[in-house]
Amino acid sequence: MIQNTARPRGRPRSFDETGAIDKAIQVFWSKGYDGVTIDDLVVGMGVGRPSLYAVFGDKRAIFLRVLRAYAERKGASAAKALFAPPDLRDSIAGFLRYNVESATEKGSARGCLLLCVAPLVNDAEVQRFLQNAAMGGAALLERRFRDGISAGEIPSDFPVAARAIQVADLARGLTMRAHIGTPRKTLLKDAEEATDVVLLPRRV
């Protein structure tokens, strides 16, 4: 009996997709979206042009994939910083500190790809992605505040939605200030002070 052993088409990939996307993040960081060419991505990602198009698509498709990978990574780390501490104040302070520390990490571009590069891209899908990411971040913060209400750390009438947006805006502000060169030490001090302001009782 003859066995039907199908042979794989083409040669196996000689590169790591995840690693290539990580390299693409750095390419877009260094040149911005408009400044990046396919040649830049070919060199920066270490992928031949035919394989780049076949596996990742054009520049726009690569950028969208970069955004998804970057946001998932950042989101997971931010959620850990927010939900790991049992105390609400430590949670909010830890979330803001994480944003400062990731935006001022040595050896990487200052700021955040989602705040400093992506908003400048004139593309409806990119803008929708950023809006959804912002809503997802605010929802996580709301959830943490509600946990604080359940634990009796803040009163039941605490303005959860408004304060969640406030914290998200503070995180973005700290990140943008890192992008323009504000020292990490200054930003970490401001993050601690901002936490105390956020948790002040509701004014009547």
TrEMBL record:
It comes from the Bacteria. The keyword Transcription applies. Keywords: DNA-binding, Transcription, Transcription regulation. GO terms for molecular function: DNA binding. Pfam families: TetR_N. InterPro entries: Homeodomain-like_sf, HTH_TetR, Tet_transcr_reg_TetR-rel_C_sf. It comes from Acidisarcina polymorpha. The keyword DNA-binding applies. Residues 14-74 form the HTH tetR-type domain. This is Transcriptional regulator, TetR family. Residues 37-56 bind DNA.
